[in-house]
Amino acid sequence: MLDKIFSPETYSMLGQWALGFCKNLVIALVVYFIGKYIIKWLTKLVSKLLKKSKVEPSLASFLKSIVSVVCWFCLLIIIVSILGIETSSFIALFASAGVAVGLALSGTLQNFAGGVMILLFKPFKVGDYIEAQGFEGTVKEIQIFNTIIRTNDAQTIIIPNGGLSTGSLKNYSTEKYRRVDLDFHFAYGADLEAVKKAINKVQAANELIIQGPVDDSPVVAAPWVGITEFAEKGVVVNTRTWCKGSDYWTVYFYMNETVYQQLKDLAFMFPAKKIDVNVVKG
């Protein structure tokens, strides 16, 4: 038995296997160093492209890490294959683990994908005033999984990026100009021409209000006043006033306060809810 184990044929087979393994090991080492150089070069190339595309730093760092991990995984598979180790079961194991992790973290992965989409396509950026998912406020920070906004009353709202990237979103900071739309109610019988004249005077008195079309926006127009509804309590007069986006709230409160004061001084009556009570004597 020992004679067969330590026979010349056995030594010959061991020698051939060792020679082949050493040969494959040398090839694997060469592939490793070449692959390491290629991964380093590819990572730098991706970094330059991301910097040139002005991608958010947090997303750029994450994408570089993803590229690096994927490249190293591919290099590992190649080296294992060169050494003669079966890779199919190795890959299947990683694939199964990936599926299991994906199912366990489906919600988190959805938020991650949403964060990548937001950082790549930039439907909004830090500093924009947005309305989404039932909240509105200024974007304070865009993270991979969540977006943090600050409301006007100084509350911090954390919104998952999954719903934020797929749902409807209103960005008030995208356009340079905004229109302030306000409704004023007047009792039936009011002198509407006098009302319009008084409101036009209020609109013309504020330098923040744009008085006509501008070259850099096709929708901006002169201030407008008109009747939009005959309501139960009276006539509804609508005002449409254009201003710069940064001046929106200043103009909004100016119009409300000044129109009320101006028309009150002119003795205009604003309608109030009335209830008729009939007393029946039995």
Report what the structure shows.
By secondary structure, this protein is an alpha+beta fold. The protein is 51% helix and 18% strand. It has helices at 2-5, 8-52, 57-82, 88-104, 106-121, 161-166, 192-204, 248-265; strands at 129-132, 135-142, 146-150, 156-160, 169-171, 177-186, 224-230, 235-244. Strands 4-3-2-1-5 form a 5-stranded antiparallel sheet. The chain has a 3-stranded antiparallel sheet with strand order 6-8-7, covered by helices on one side. It is elongated and about 125 Å long. The protein starts with a helix and ends in a 17-residue tail after the last helix. The mean pLDDT is 80.
Summarize it.
The protein is an alpha+beta fold.
Summarize this structure as a short list of keywords or feature phrases.
282 residues; alpha+beta; 5-stranded antiparallel sheet; 3-stranded antiparallel sheet; 8 helices; 18% strand; elongated
> Kindly, what is the distance between the CA atoms of the first and last residues, rounded to a whole number of angstroms?
126 Å
Total helices: the number is 8
Assembly annotation: single chain
State which percent range the strand residues make up. 15-25%
What is the overall silhouette? elongated
Q: Which parts are unreliable, with pLDDT below 50 for 5 consecutive residues or more?
A: none
What structural class do helix, strand and pairing data support?
alpha+beta
Q: What's the count of strands?
A: 8
Q: Fraction of residues in helices?
A: 40-55%
Mean of all residue-level pLDDT scores: 80
